[in-house]
Write a structure and sequence with these properties.
The protein has 285 residues and is mostly helical. Helix content is 74%, strand content 4%. It contains 14 helices and two strands, in the order ββαααααααααααααα. A two-stranded antiparallel ribbon has the order 1-2. The two termini are 36 Å apart.
């Protein structure tokens, strides 16, 4: 074909139609628009965070990130993530195993419930926890009688974090395990392996990169969550404020340099998460 490109399939040579190729000006235009979008909406805001954080010098920056309230926010953020991630890993692996390896009634309902946090606003989720566990909520009176505090305390923040990060591990593993099928597990069982042996020696090694990918996404969302945590935290400075909430407090108090300094910690976390994500995608490929 005139103007075509030669391609090879085995020992055969065939021509690609020019219709399958875009003109160079079209490719350059699309590339330029993509890079422009990336620069304006992603790169510039990220650079602005670090520029504003360092505007008043390293001393102000260091004071902001070493402030006791910032340290308390970092510890609470790490605590919430450290509790939420293992729980979501256990549930996500169990749910993915059941959905991909077995047929049972209510399977579609379980899949729908896993997707629920994606469709519900985090603020609404926080309000639901207040309705259930708050002082005037359904369980509020019983909790007060037993001196148990959930809302405006650390347990409420952990519950909100678990809710918003609930789907990530399961949703990453379900399509992966469905694509792998059940042949390997059936072969292991036929050779005398127990259920736990099959899981640890056959299933887990085959899903390890997908599991790590889900954990990375779960961790990023846990540390960056604002909406649901904001509703249940009460904004008690140094007690129930995570890093995103601490940024809001500093900004509302017109401490802009400190606010951007703390925000830069979250931006660095995002960059590290992106790097780990790319590494896992490369290894899993």
């Amino acid at each position: 074909m005139v103007g075509g490109i030669q391609a090879y399939r085995g020992s055969e040579v065939y021509e690609l139609s020019p219709a399958t190729r875009e003109p160079q000006w079209a490719r350059l235009t699309i590339l330029g628009l993509s890079l422009l979008f990336f620069a304006i909406f992603l790169l510039m805001p990220l650079l602005a965070v670090f520029v504003e954080a360092l505007r008043k010098g390293w001393e102000v920056y260091w004071q902001a990130i070493t402030n006791p309230d910032t340290g308390a926010a970092i510890r609470l953020t790490l605590l919430a993530a450290a509790i939420a991630i293992p729980l979501n890993v256990v549930f996500g692996v169990a749910a993915a195993w059941c959905i991909s390896k077995f047929e049972f009634r209510g399977k579609q309902l379980l899949i729908t419930l896993i997707d629920l946090p994606f469709s519900v606003s985090p603020v609404v989720a926080g309000l639901v926890y207040v309705l259930v566990f708050g002082a005037h909520g359904w369980l509020g009176e019983w909790l007060s009688e037993h001196n148990i505090k959930i809302i405006f305390a650390v347990p409420g923040i952990v519950l909100a974090t678990i809710f918003v990060t609930f789907p990530f591990v399961a949703r990453e593993l379900i399509p992966l395990m469905q694509a792998q099928g059940t042949d390997a597990e059936e072969a292991a069982v036929s050779l005398g392996a127990s259920g736990w042996q099959t899981f640890w020696r056959v299933t887990l090694p085959s899903i390890k990169w997908g599991l790590l990918y889900g954990v990375i996404l779960c961790n990023a969302r846990a540390m960056g969550e604002f909406g649901a945590v904001s509703v249940v935290s009460g904004h008690l400075r140094g007690q129930t404020t995570t890093l995103p909430l601490h940024v809001e407090i500093l900004y509302n108090e017109y401490q802009f340099a400190a606010a951007f300094a703390v925000a830069s910690l979250l931006a660095l976390l995002a960059l590290v998460t992106l790097g780990i994500k790319l590494f896992i995608e490369w290894r899993s490929a």
